[in-house]
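Changelog-adjacent note: as of this version, every example in the card shows the full chain rather than a window. The one below runs 339 residues end to end.
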Amino acid sequence: MRQPINNYTLMMKQLKNYCTRSIVLLMLSLIAGRGIAQSPVTATVTDQYDNTLEGAVVKAFPSGTTTVTDSLGAFSLLVAAGDSIQVSKDGFAITSFKAGKNKTTYLIEKEFDWKDLLNPLFYIKNGGLWLLLFIVFAETGLMVGFFLPGDSLLFVAGIYSTKLIATLPTGSTGSDFVNLIILWILIAACGILGNMAGYWFGRQSGPFLFTRKDTFFFKRKHLMRAKGFYDKHGGQAIVFARFLPIIRTFAPIVAGIVQMDRKKFMLYNIIGCVAWVFSMLFAGHYLQKFFLRKFNFDLTKHLEPIVVVIVLITTLPVLYKLFFGKRATGDDSSLSQNA
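Full-length structure tokens:
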């Protein structure tokens, strides 16, 4: 009777050992299979303004591997089959993506900050061509855009000219140069119309100011001197003002207040707007191409110092006139006062 029992016990031990070995082998195969399925994903994290993001946390889930982007916004992460990639950073929306070997850029949205109003890409990315045209008009026509980044906005618009024109009903022309010309015409037209609106407002309020009595803050003689200056040098003032932030917002209004001749104003208004838009648009477009091709240097990542340099260059004629033409201006003022 003991023999069957011993056989049964031996059989159960063998079965138990077999099951144990099978489970171990299965677990090892799963681990090995998961390790084989893992592959590296290398990409860059940027925000909606094309800025690379340093210190963004990149996590693969459910596998759980994690890394952080370097100073160039780049990362490399082992991702298992079926994993997703989650990217997060303070001040940005947490975003998840389906992992892919061919994906080179992961875009996460930056939360709104009031400083974004000084970033030209904020308007181009969020409002496109129509917001750009409205801003150029409003800067002088509505007298509320003096804080807007006018020069840098046009500079960046030159870089994105093809994308901006593509939003028109007719779409892109297929030629970068033709797209740039169309954008030049549209923006210059809005700038001309904005100056005309500012001039009209100043002209309507001018008669009231000319008949107003002197106060502590207002002296009629100063207005008369300004009129004498605009009568003789107003054309140049309108042209130069287009290249000067803040000043270009109020120059057409002052021209209207001092009753500057309409035809003279319109002539220099057109010259100033066309020259300003041309210089900023074409500089942005072709300098970006040149630096990318020669040095692989993206100007959109260094806008602030570039725009400062551009503003300094465009204001040199004004500074020259103020410095070397001081005596002539003083003579004009005294003549106007005696008159």
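Structural remarks: Confidence is low (pLDDT under 50) at residues 32-36, 327-339.
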